[in-house]
Here is the input.
Amino acid sequence: MSRENETVDPASPHGSPFRPTPKIRNFKPADIDAVAGFEAEIAVRSFAEEAVTDLDHYRKKLGKLLKYGDDWTKVLVLTDDRGAEAVVGWAWVAPRQNFITGDTYADFRSLYVDGAKAGPSAAIMLLRAVLAHCEAKGFTRIVGRTATSNAAMRSLYALAGFQERHVVYELDIGPSAEGRRPTG
Here is the structure.
């Protein structure tokens, strides 16, 4: 068991370790730098060598989200024994409406948890908050995406009962793809 996030509680009679409990709160401007880093990490997991990792790109995007968005955005924080917060996760859900059917659904845009800092159950805690929000809003369904290589997110989706519905296929056809395509 890692004791990286534990400190000794001086008020405890036996000096037992203090382990912060993750809490969920609204995303705010002070969180942008941490969340930009999360988004860059998600991009690497999802797009490998094609990932956009420019933190300024994500800072700008997140700043606009806070300024103009009506989306549900939450962060997962740990508060240490001195009251200092560390952002260790985040979730983003956007409302969408099918223009043909009028169906209102949730677009599950992003979820990230630093499991090493937040603990093994933190991702489930944040996922439950996403599901509760979507149910409270009366959405008819939740649409989420992830790369086939992102086993952690695929496992969370499966745990929550999501079903795989669409598969996207890609074929590289540019000059760098030659030699990798079947010829006939």
Notes: DSSP finds five helices and seven strands in the chain. Residues 1-12 have pLDDT under 50 and may be disordered. The longest strand covers residues 85-97. Residues 4 and 117 are 8 Å apart (CA to CA).
